[in-house]
Recover the amino acids of this structure.
């Protein structure tokens, strides 16, 4: 059988992505064949497709880490999954549980060394998959492996935020809106930054307590000090990165935590280390998460009936349009693709 798949070309651009036909590979004993139903896009997919820095893959790589499908065939020794199970791929297929190790981070899906899921059918090892919550649609479930798990890991697993904590969240993209949902779930007070008043209004409807437009108030850290009576916030979800982290250092409370997640502003920064020291700021790098964390997150999604925020859904043949919209950063929440 032949099926369609997207591939990165030497142009390393969204426009240059090729839609080609491939022969279905033979299943190994521990592998399953998945008919893909939906995908979601992440900022990181653009870094890979454009071949930026350490994300540059070889020509021919299949992009996109996040997707959900239904198992249509199982290998002879598969024991944990059956035909018709609805599953998502793990962003880090080797990070099942426990602490991160180098070996667990070697082959993220849709990255430098491993093909991703933007194909009609996918073959994966049974251990590289997770069943998704039944109450979510395919498109909703497709948003979980990268953006949701990263937000969950930062705030709930490592961050251990508590009711009454004040959490600062930057932006209204995928990671940011999951962070909003988890922070509110945990009983935290949320301050959100966005460059758009329209998006701030939408976030207000989600129950966010304080809204700041970072374009109109570039010194937003001062406003945060006003809101928190000069104390600062307990936790910052830093999606911007680079020098921008200094603003977060100025906005965080004594002994507060900054989850360093994003690099929209660049990969390096000139950082105020003296202030980190004197205010005992904890900087925690977050790199998606493990299957064990994913399972705990799925339970919370079910118990609290949390549904991902989806901006727009495109057809499989419209993947380039979806990625172009992602590049424009005009979206609110997640951009998805569905068969
Ligand atoms: N470490 C990890 O494991 C991990 C996992 C996932 C993502 N990431 C990284 O996290 C970042 C966000 O990823 P994503 O997929 O959520 O991206 P996304 O959906 O494209 O969202 C990016 C958002 O960032 C906001 N933004 C841009 N400049 C800002 C600024 N100066 N201040 C505040 N917000 C700003 C924008 O929000 P407004 O339009 O509202 O202004 C934009 O919508 C990316 O750098 C990505 O590579 C890291």
């Amino acid at each position: 059988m032949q099926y369609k798949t997207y591939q990165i070309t030497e142009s390393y651009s969204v426009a240059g992505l090729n839609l080609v036909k491939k022969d279905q590979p033979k299943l190994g004993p521990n592998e399953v064949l998945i008919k893909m139903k939906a995908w979601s896009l992440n900022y990181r997919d653009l870094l890979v497709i454009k071949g930026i820095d350490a994300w540059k893959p070889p020509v021919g790589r299949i992009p996109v880490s996040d997707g959900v499908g239904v198992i249509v065939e199982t290998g002879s020794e598969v024991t944990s999954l059956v035909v018709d199970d609805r599953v998502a791929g793990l962003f880090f297929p080797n990070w099942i549980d426990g602490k991160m190790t180098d070996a667990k981070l070697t082959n993220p899906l849709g990255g430098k060394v491993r093909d991703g899921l933007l194909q009609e059918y996918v073959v994966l090892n049974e251990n590289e998959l997770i069943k998704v919550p039944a109450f979510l649609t395919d498109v909703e479930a497709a948003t979980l492996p990268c953006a949701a798990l990263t937000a969950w890991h930062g705030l709930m697993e490592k961050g251990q935020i508590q009711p009454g904590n004040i959490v600062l969240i930057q932006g209204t993209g995928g990671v940011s809106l999951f962070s909003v949902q988890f922070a509110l779930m945990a009983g935290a007070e949320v301050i959100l930054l966005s460059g758009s008043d329209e998006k701030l209004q939408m976030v207000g409807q989600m129950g966010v307590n304080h809204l700041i437009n970072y374009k109109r108030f570039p010194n937003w850290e001062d406003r945060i000090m006003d809101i928190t009576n000069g104390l600062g916030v307990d936790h910052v979800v830093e999606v911007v990165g680079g020098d921008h982290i200094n603003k977060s250092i100025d906005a965080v409370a004594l002994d507060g935590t900054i989850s360093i997640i994003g690099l929209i502003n660049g990969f390096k920064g000139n950082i105020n280390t003296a202030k980190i020291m004197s205010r005992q700021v904890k900087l925690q790098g977050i790199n998606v998460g493990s299957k064990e964390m994913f399972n705990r997150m799925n339970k919370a999604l079910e118990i609290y009936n949390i549904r991902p925020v989806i901006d727009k859904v495109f057809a499989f043949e419209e993947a380039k349009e979806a990625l172009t919209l992602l590049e424009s950063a005009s979206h609110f929440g997640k951009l998805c693709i569905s068969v």
Remarks:
- Residues 2-143+308-338 form a domain with the Quinone Oxidoreductase; Chain A, domain 1 fold (CATH 3.90.180.10).
